[in-house]
Amino acid sequence: MEFGVNFFPVVDPAKKSASDYFDECLRLVSLAENLGFEHVQCVEHYFSPYGGYLPDPVTFLAAAAARTSRIRICTGAVIPAFTHPLKLAGKLAMLDNLSHGRLDVGFGRAFLPQEFEAFGIDIDESRARFDQGVEVCRRLWSERDVVWEGTFQQFGPVTMLPEPVQKPHPPIFIASAMSQESCVAAGRAGYHLQVVPSVTSREQLQSMLSGYREAWREAGHPGRPRIQIKYTCYVAEDRAVALALAETFELNYVENMAQAVASWGRARSDAYRGYEQFVEKVKKYDFRSSHADNKVLAGTPDEVRDQIAVLIDWFGADPTLSLQFNPGYIAYGDAERAMRLFAEHVMPAYVGLEHAT
Fold first, then answer.
1. Half-sphere exposure of 203 (CA within 13 A, CB side)
2. Residue 199: per-residue pLDDT
3. Nearest alpha-carbon partner for 106 in 123, 92, 90
4. Cβ neighbours of residue 109 under 8 Å, at least 6 residues apart?
5. How far apart are CA 293 and CA 314, in angstroms?
6. Which helix (H) or strand (E) holds 74?
7. Which residues are in the Luciferase-like domain (predicted)?
8. What is the pLDDT of residue 279?
């Protein structure tokens, strides 16, 4: 099992400025490399405290790449619907070169109606725009004289420069929140997977992962699929301190998410069946239940180590856990302490485990 670090800024500017947030994140990026984490990654969102500090993951990850030499640089995820694929493929190819071939590319559909509205894009087109955007990027990275006659863009022949360092292209991950269909399609295509357990049940996530793995095997792809599962993580020597931080910043996440998903109270889309339930799910959030269900990792190093043992029993030892140590406006010292304690007292128990089972 491997562990990475992810950044999802659920931050009100009144509580922490963007420049301070980025400075702290980049300090954690350097620390993550020194402590042996496998990757750093960040999300793409717009306009609100729910992720809005990161409208362009490539910009942040370019800064991360400049400060590191080993750790993987990962988008988690970029949104093809909001950027022309010629531009997106070029930006990501540049990042693969700047990082000397350390880029993993996670693609996502986006799910907030207000983001689609602001970009003037029909949310019902999200699946088609996503599928076509991923395919255009893949072809531009791996082929010459590409001609594309799609629903949303037409161009060619085009040969992308710069070429990516990794051949035939950087590893591609597909981000899925709740869609079994997306997971199966990713496995069939030979793409890797990013999932977020906080928005789904354990049983549903197990089904998603099972469908993904089965589709990968049936398609006959070589090697092992890579799965990233994302968690917030609070570690302290004192259990009460860790749980107090966890409750504060999980509630901060939920409160800001509630504002971001409020538009699902009026929006409906066949491309997002069941997403109207987000509003009610957020209202019913209970931190203690979430912690007991292992949707958030929090406690002493021993307690977090025990939580991970449960996750391995549920989801297998092969996924990489992508951990957020600085959620919300948490103080930098608390985030650094949690990362160091995790690396020193939790990670050694599990690194390499999948190769031994």
1. 0
2. 80
3. 92
4. 79, 81, 126, 127, 130, 175, 182
5. 11
6. strand 72-78
7. 1-313
8. 72
CA–CA separation, 46 vs 55, rounded Å?
Answer: 5
Average pLDDT over residues 190-211: 94
Interatomic CA distance for residues 47 and 13, integer angstroms: 12
Helix (H/G/I), strand (E/B), else coil: 15: coil
pLDDT digits (tens, 9 = 90+) for 106-149: 999 998 999 999 999 999 999 999 999 999 999 999 999 999 99
pLDDT tens sequence across 213-245:
999 999 999 889 999 999 999 999 999 999 999
Residue 123 to residue 117: CA distance in whole angstroms: 8
Distance of CA 309 to the CA centre of its chain: 22
Domains for the chain: give ranges and CATH numbers. Answer: 3-356 (3.20.20.30)
Which amino acid makes up residue 157?
P
Q: List beta partners, residue 154.
A: 149
Buried residues in 6-19 as b, exposed as e (16+ CB within 10 A): bbbbbbeeeebeee
Preceding omega of 162 cis (within 30 degrees of 0):
yes
Only one residue has tokens 């307690």, namely: 303
pLDDT digits (tens, 9 = 90+) for 156-174: 999 999 999 999 999 999 9
Spatial separation of the C-alpha atoms in residues 221 and 191, rounded to whole Å = 10
Bridging pattern class, strands 3-7 and 72-78 = unpaired
- Intra-chain end-to-end CA distance of the chain, in Å: 10
